[in-house]
Model the fold of this input.
Amino acid sequence: MKFHCFHFLPYLHADLNFRDKGKVSLWMVSEHDFDAEKCHALYSRYLDELELVDTLGFDGVCVNEHHQTPHSLMPSPNVIAGALTQRVKNAKILILGRALPLVENPLSVAEEWAMLDNISGGRIVCGMVRGIGIEYHAAGSNPAESQGRYFEAHDLIIDAWTKPGPFEFDGEFYEYRYVNPFPRPFTKPHPPVWIPSGGNVETIAWAAAPERKYTYCQFFNAPYEGVKKTLLSYRKAANDWGYEASNDQLAWAVPTYVADTDEQAMAEAKPHIEALFNDFMSFPKEMLLPPGYSSIASMLGAMKAAPVGGRGGGRTTVEELVEKGIVHIGSPETVRHRIRTAREEIGLGHVLAMLQFGTMPVDLTRNNITRYAREVMEPLREEFASQTSVSRVPEHV
Amino acid sequence: MRQDIVNILDYDVPVAVFGTGLPNFVLLSGAGGPEMCYPFADRLSEFGTVFVPEHPGFGLAPNPSWLKLPSDLANFYALLLSKLDLKDVHLIGHSLGGWVATEMAIRSPARMASLTLISSAGVKVRGTPIGDNFLWSPEVLPSKLFHHPQPPVSKPAPTDDDLIRHLKRQATVAQLVWKPRWHDPALQRWLPSINVPTAIIWGRQDQLFPVGNANLLAEQIPNSTLHILDDCGHVAIIEQPDAVMEIIQAQLDGDVR
Done:
């Protein structure tokens, strides 16, 4: 089991009373008060937090990409990753991920990742995502071409890294007379590719294919039973391809908070986790699901799905989030138990703990990072190392 | 009304046909689908025969591989006119259908007698925003499309087939118009080549495409007349059918003012 820390770098001074002002979301359509001094201070604070994560011996620090929202100060994750190469000395830097269809020139992504791979000495992980639906409004890219552009950009990047150049790339969406990036990746044949997603079945089957075996990372807003079903569907897909997936191919990003007791953890995390789910991550369906973004079957499922949190239902509470296993909030033993269960039931190989979320201030965050490292990560590492073989391979559902 | 199926390039396109005799009208619908045009097509059939095709990609059949842009639909409908051997066609397009009709008038006007554009897509006045229909929820949609929205009527809950049809049509519309949004600069450059009599009809309160778009079309299309309708939103054939009928009648009489 690998332990990582995921950080959204939120602009936590955003006005969360946006609904009182007639706004529907903190994303894209709202005006914001932006204070550059505060923003500068936040970047410094967050880089310090991720440096602490490295010092405490985590396996990786994780960043990602969102646009036009205080939810995340990372419209370009590669910029943050570049800064992290100088702060984080041992841990891997997981970029989860870069939204490929949003860029007009995906060859630049192959180039930037090759740079980061060389600068970091082979410590980056390259997450390839489509971006959530709202990014197609924000970037203007056509959601109906999202899947086609995604797969083609992936092929281009892998080819650019692994095939001798110069060569010609003649795609439906991207066309290059010369593909010959320089520098080449540090890691041979190329940096690890992860596929972070919300559970799209077509994407899972594709990621699990024998020529890829990409680590699939389930994102943070699903109940545990859903996470389990999705990750086991990856195992099933691998079986269908004719091999057994390793634990290393399965990852889960989950908001996590540790305190002395379950009650204390819930009380301390409550305002911040509820701000994340109800305010920072709130948008109407029209924003989240632009037409053509996913297959008709997936879109139909999403249309019928019960709304989560601020997406049309009432406000989600910390109690509800804990009960459904969407978050890990509790005493060290409670959190350890949840991770142990996921390892036993799913064969989970990577847990990405989001240890700052929503409006969580610096003292709580640093305390949370430290306690998680000492009282969750370290004991579990010992516990798992003492087990001779990895837990049984789960029955597939 | 009868429903015909016409096979073109291995695609079965459903065509609703209203009335009989000459002249022939072809009415190309907006993104809402052909059904929105049926009441008006029925009225228009007092003059002749009205053909209302369902745009490829709007039904349950898989999208044809050639379908990427509105100009693809224009090429397709040129084949439809040939296949049905329609001559001297009065081509009417609403919204998305107006974009396709404008493309046809530029590319293949041989079978056309006139062009009528109703709140047509296809052009954009630089710097003037258009409405963002892709962010309009089903609840606000009527108040965005109509100046006087009708009170909602209670309908049976949609079946899975209804939802699939809706999602698929929306995906096709996104494929066609998302970027550049609802317009094509190349189309705009060739407007001066249109040589059929053209009527441009617009609701003054259109919240999707502002009246400035109507002015642009009228300025760029040589033999055109401009009709701005009061108390009218984006769907003049529903909100002001009498006025639209009068304009088309005048167009037929060759007396467009």
Notes: The mean pLDDT of chain B is 96. Strands of chain B lie at 2-8, 11-18, 24-28, 49-53, 89-94, 112-118, 198-203, 224-229.
